Amino acid sequence: MAMGRPKAELVLSEEEQAQLEAIARSRSLPAALVHRAGVVLACAAGATNSAVAGRFHTTQATVGKWRRRFVEGRIAGGATKTEALRLLRRRLSDEVFRRLRVDEMGDQVVLDAPDSVAA
Predict the structure, then answer these.
(1) What is the DSSP string of the chain?
(2) How far, in Å, CA of 101 to CA of 35, rounded?
(3) C-alpha atoms less than 13 angstroms from C-alpha of 51 in its C-beta half-sphere
């Protein structure tokens, strides 16, 4: 009989698995993002929160938080808004980055249509 709260089931698509593995191997991305990718990969492999917490020198609550955030938000749930914008800023041209904005709810980054296309 299982004890404790039930874990959110975490199943990765092939694409998500490849993206997370690339993030986990990265030496240029923020360390916190690399750490989270490793935590999510370990959870997806079937490890318990306590085993993942021990392996990554963190708490079970932190592992549970990142498991839950990934299940709810998939890849985008693994980065905070500030981190996501910082990563986008490094990879996008100035023109494209200036067209980004946070939506009214504050939970998504949206790329505005160019003025020539807007109605």
Answers:
(1) ---SSPPPP----HHHHHHHHHHHH-SSS-HHHHHHHHHHHHHHTT--HHHHHHHTTS-HHHHHHHHHHHHHHGGGGGS-HHHHHHHHHHHS-HHHHHTEEE-TTSS-EEEPPPTTT--
(2) 27
(3) 9
Each of the 119 residues of the chain gets a pLDDT tens digit; together they read 556 677 778 888 888 888 888 888 888 877 888 898 899 999 999 999 999 999 999 999 999 988 988 888 776 655 555 665 666 666 666 666 566 555 555 555 555 555 544 44
Q: How far, in Å, CA of 27 to CA of 16, rounded? A: 19
Cβ(52)–Cβ(39) under 8 Å?
yes
In a domain, 2, yes or no: no
Measure the CA–CA gap between 117 and 103, rounded to whole angstroms. Answer: 19
Q: Is the pTM of this model over 0.70?
A: no
- Is residue 18 located within the same domain as residue 74? yes
Which residue range(s) make up the domain with 30? Answer: 7-79
